[in-house]
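Hello again,

I reread your note about wanting to compare the complex against the isolated chains. To keep things tidy I'm splitting this into two emails, and this first one only covers the full assembly. Below are the input lines as submitted, including protein chains and any nucleic acid or small-molecule components. They are followed by the predicted structure of everything together. The single-chain runs will come separately.
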Amino acid sequence: MPEKIVLAFSGGLDTTVAVKWLTETRGFDVVALTVDLGSQPNLNAIRERALAAGALQSCVLDARQPFIERFCWPALKAGALYQGQYPLATALGRPLIAQLLVEVAAREGATWVGHGSTGKGNDQVRFDVAVGALNPKLNVLAPLRDGMEMTREEEIAYARAKNLPIEVKPESPYSVDENLWGRSIEAGALEDALLKPPEDAFRWTSSVDNAPASPAVIELTFERGVPTTLDGRRTRGVSLVEELNRLGGLHGVGRIDMIEDRFVGIKSREIYEAPAAVILHTAHRALEDLVLDAEVGRFKTSVATEYARLVYQGKWFSSHRRDLDTYVQSTQGAVSGTVRLTLHKGSAQVIGRSSPYSLYRPQLATYSAGDQFDHQAAVGFIKLVGLPVRTQAAVQGSAVTEPLLEDDRHVVEVGPGALEVGLAEPVLRTAMPGVVDPDLRR
Ligand code: ARG
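Full-complex prediction:
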């Protein structure tokens, strides 16, 4: 009996060819699994295409709600932005698809799962690692990496020869992956890191030039770290994200252009459109600044970096992520309140925030009447804070030796009471290793 494989099927050229190749060349029974994370326009057509390409069964699932609530919300609460910028849309989608592959495989008695990643990116790592973490007995096959390697032209010729139902659209100049949390765009003209991304790379966001002249003002409320209302209307995750993508996109918010450190060791130039994710991270952070104790706020930024790294590197299903989630969840008890933002010409700007748990106390912060801050207490406080450096300076001398003023020879007095002094040139001490800089003065 042929072995069964559950293949993550997007309906594009690669996976359509893969269905046939897995059937004919590798002798598998193929179950095609299409997971809608917010980007699939026509699920019925995709189901039919899978069957026409030779799949035994085709399964189409709308997973938008679990995607937002179980994957995006935890990442939002953690503040997870890879390299401080990328909200991780693709990276968060992969573990969900992997989990469904594993669960469908269990139901269908499949011993293999497959996905359409190439051998060059992060996605293969995310799929393979996630599947291994969920069911180490399953075999994973990525046709585009593991034997099927065909150029686009070869795939089209193969599809024509086998009568596969492909739409040969003009080739997209970029490689794109999209879901509700964002749109990832790479390759083609974007590989020139100096080139301004051509406007045709963007689908969700207006350019600054085309964005409306007047800003939109929005109000978001959060309950324990999760956004729950938009402009006063209680809105469930998927609709809230869709609405913010639309509105933010209109105002050009959420374009990201970065050089990214891939897990496989390459630096690559990546463009993202993620209006909702950028707005929500900005608002969530503003609310945290209001309600989190300073120690937690500071420590949590290092947790955010770690969380983003592990998601990016495909370790969603790990005890490390579970433990970080536990910490993050514990920080979110007071992250309830309202944030107002303007969306204008490409930026989302916080213009106000409030919370019943606010630690911002006007009577402590004020410079006006009613100030309750103890100014005299500051004197003793500073005495103790400065004690170690005073002690060290007295015993060992000051740690800073480079004077700002030019040496005494150049200090000239001109006129009665006037002291003319010059500022010294800074001394450059470092150069790139191996690079000899003739201008170096020491
Ligand atoms: N660089 C991003 C990441 O690793 C996006 C990858 C997008 N994938 C694609 N097939 N275009 O998460």
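For quick reference: Residues 208 and 311 are 31 Å apart (CA to CA).

B.
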